[in-house]
Amino acid sequence: MITFFGNLHEGHAPASEFYRGELVPCFEKPARAHYVQAQLALRGHDVRTPAADSRAVLARIHTPRYLQFLETAWQQWGALDTANAAVQPFPSVWPVRGLRSDVEPVNFIAKLGLYSMDNGTPLVEGTWRVIKQAADAAAHAAQLIGQGERGVFCATRPPGHHAGADFMGGYCFLNNAAVAAQALRDGGCERVAILDVDFHHGNGTQEIFYDRADVLFVSLHGDPLTEYPFYLGHADERGHGAGEGFNLNLPMPAGTPADRWFAALEVACERIVRHRADALVVSLGLDTFEGDPISKFKLSTADYSRLGERLKRLGLPAVFILEGGYAAAQLGVNAVNVIDAFE
Ligand code: OKP
Ligand code: ZN
């Protein structure tokens, strides 16, 4: 399968993130991409560097002030103090209910809070270049589908599905799946379906398409009552206005085994078929794996082949976007199992 690999990805390598109130090494680390790259090479895939420019489609997904902030954030942080070059900025205050988010503060940490849903999305000097290349890959993949390709895999990091129109969160900055879906629409697809199989609900993708009927969003994930992102992803979120009925959440409890997960996948596939989509975007998180250090489903390595086979039977051209998956040493095998079975 044609795959896009972000050769700049090592430029986004934050040292630490908050976990249970302490700073720990980041789970979302460059080694994840190294393992995927190695497995793609081993199995003879056509690995390319993205060459499209996603800027126009990014402007249709994210707000101007959020894009402006992301692109200049590190420079703004560094301009405050020469010592900041060696310090990761984290937000510490957020405009929750009753506070104003229409006025952008001048204070950098306050701006970071305005554009964040959590303190779990570390930003470093190289972040913009890396996330822009991942979005470029998503846009390029959609172009290739428009030219008749059956499947394209974006083996990029960091993930994107928690990023909303104007905020980062959950290691995500730019919503690559949304970029792919919008680029497919702009390239002539009348209806697009997004299937998000990451363990965590894709709150950003849901939000971006919530009032639209042209892009169906379907997600299988850990129940937000107990799992990140906590504040979105319930079964009663069905879409709004013209988009009513075009959002389907299938939350499942922690500990969900493979047979129950595949039963939910059937429900998801039935809804996608009913949408009569021209193309599919798969938010391919592999953190449903039984060995994942931060997630709680029980899929095995062989189950990822089963997933790829089931998606193949939908008969739709598909863009696969790498999302989560933190058992790094197994990530390559699990991800490429999906891709190989789909082919
Ligand atoms: C991103 B993706 C707190 C640790 C938990 C939230 C998990 C983000 C998962 N710093 N962070 O959906 O795989
Ligand atoms: Zn995840």
What this model shows, in words?
This protein has ten helices and ten strands. The chain is an alpha/beta fold. It has one domain: 3-Layer(aba) Sandwich (Arginase, Chain A), CATH 3.40.800.20. Strands 4-1-5-10-9-6-7-8 form an eight-stranded parallel β-sheet, sandwiched between helices. It has a two-stranded antiparallel ribbon with strand order 2-3. The relative contact order is 0.15. Bound molecules: {5-[(3-aminopropyl)amino]pentyl}boronic acid and zinc ion (ZN). {5-[(3-aminopropyl)amino]pentyl}boronic acid binds next to β2. InterPro entries: HDACs, His_deacetylse_dom, His_deacetylse_dom_sf, Ureohydrolase_dom_sf.
Question: Could you provide a short overview of the structure?
Answer:
With 343 residues, this protein is of the alpha/beta class.
Number of helices: 10
Measured distance between first and last alpha carbons: 7 Å
Fill in the CATH topology: Arginase, Chain A
Distinct bound molecules: {5-[(3-aminopropyl)amino]pentyl}boronic acid, zinc ion
> Mind summarizing the main beta sheet?
8 strands, parallel
Helix content: 25-40%
Give the integer mean of the pLDDT values: 98
CATH architecture: 3-Layer(aba) Sandwich
Q: List low-pLDDT spans.
A: none
Number of strands: 10
- The CATH C-level class name: Alpha Beta
Gyration radius (Cα, Å) is: 19 Å
